[in-house]
Structures
1.
Amino acid sequence: MTAVPRRRMVPAYLATGGRTRPGTAGFERLTVLYAAAAAPPQGLEHEHTRLWELLRPGALTVAEAAAHLRLPVSATVFLAADLVEAGCLNARAPIPRAQQTDRSIVERLLVGLRTLR
């Protein structure tokens, strides 16, 4: 007999508290989150506590945290924004993509290295 996947008891949209926008703007799915406080403040909802405990050992992106929590990324953004506002988490912008190197510079470098022989 195959195991039936367990469904969440509480729908993911309830994790946002019925809000349509997070309090803190600027979160992307690659925003890096990490715990800022030694212990979470009292009175956090269960989902907030789960996110804080997940990030206590080290940093994760919003998308990675959402996957671990089995929540949509949009709901995880709300949870993270709440914890950042409470001072429990810090958020850092994602590392920008590297720009492509100018090919002529690489070719001149290779010519220079070959002349050193």
2.
Amino acid sequence: MAKILVIDDDQDITDNLSMILESQGYQVTVKGDTDRLLEEVRALRPDLIILDIMLPEDAQAGFKAARLLNQDAELGRIPVLILSAVNQRSNLSFGFSEHDISPDFMPVEAFLDKPVEPKVLLEKIEQLL
């Protein structure tokens, strides 16, 4: 089955995602930050990356990670799904959605808000894979 890399610093979220995904036969690896991102993604060779936006090292770490992956000719082929509560946790006067996906700003294949229903998440993953 497919290998999925989850990049999120919230233990409850990663535990829940791992349980949901593993119950469907996916192999899940969890990473709590974006340190050594390219090196670890090259070593793991995931089929899909689920990425949070706000991480301890930077409130925009997910955006930056998506751009970094996208710029790499090999790793840029891996589909990235942003799964974030940034719309609920930030005090911005605007939000993010799939409408903001673009090669420059948010170079990912999909965006879902946390919390997400397991069925919606699994359907999106199936589409991306």
3.
Amino acid sequence: MIHFYFHPTPNPAKVALFLEEAKLPYEVLPIDTRKGEQHSPAFLAVNPNGKVPAIVDTDGVGGETRAFDSSAILLYLGDKTGTFIGTAADRGELLSWLFFIGTGLGPFSGQAVHFQRAAPEPLPYAINRYRREAQRHYEVLNAHLASRDWIVGSNYSIVDISAWGWLDRAAFVLSKEEDPLSAYPNLRRWFAAVEARPAVARARRVGADHAFKTEMDETARRAMFPSNYAIER
């Protein structure tokens, strides 16, 4: 059984999609980040970094296994099940594009959203920097997809699952609510192909029965951005 620590944000959404695609049995354990539950001792024992997603696999090799960070979880589950990980010949490409998303597309997208929507005051330099870097990553993927259906090899893989998590939030990243991928036709075609998969609709329902906190009040800000309140030593 997979114990899945979840909040309805892009990185946990990737893991939800894999679990639904692979039809693995799992239990959702909500972590309400605006209430600070990611900083509880119980959760820090699973992920010392205090971030979602994380999993505990009670049927791991050699016993109970934990994994945290969405890229690590996707690799772990892909290797465990032998699904959505391409061929042996694809491995270098798969790792390269997975890390491209995990260290580039994801973080720059997240910072673009933060400085446009969560920062206490608008900082034009930061907004321009992160949004333009997110756009540059979109351009790289758009060019890569010009003559192919999926990001790696000839089949859908964990790289497509990983990219979907953040590209699903393109409207927030680019502050363009209507057709945010219009400038990236190959990326838009690819995204539509992922969206058409039945597992996507199921993944979107994960956690829907839990009332996560939605208010971004002072408690939420301190819980989500604790380094902003840290005392310098």
4.
Amino acid sequence: MSNKLAILRGINVGGKRKILMADLKSLCEKLGWKEVSTYIQSGNVIFKSEKENEDLGKELTDGVLEQFGFEVPVLVRNSEEFQNSIEKNPFYNSQADITKLHLTFLKENPQDEDLQQIKLLGCEPDQFAVDGKDVFIYCEGKYHQSKLTNNFFEKKLKVGATTRNWKTVLKLLDLASE
């Protein structure tokens, strides 16, 4: 049974689409997920399962819709994928200010033509690099003031996305590795 992480997009933001983490944990356990825990209110679930990531994401999306009455995109990755993402980040090194780093998780690999188009866009002073289903972001200022938002990447790359700050990414890997 492998360690997995489910990342929900857009819950508990501005008082909308509220889900208590205890309720989310309970739902995941009802789905048959093992050793379920959550981390912070933004919708991060650490668990064990043998099922495929896509199947797990669909299960939780459907479960949230049924139990809470709204649709929430869910991305699932295993702990090895998280570790690989951390190792691939071109902006992350021992001197990096992690408060400026973010990782946008893409639901699937973007099409080559969309990748070529997005590379032409200027977002200075912020920077980004796309590698498979990961978008590594360096924000000179505050993330909420950057152009490099979930909506930006979803629109330009035509795939679902959700973002976590680097501190959360590192903590999620730590929790999934226990």
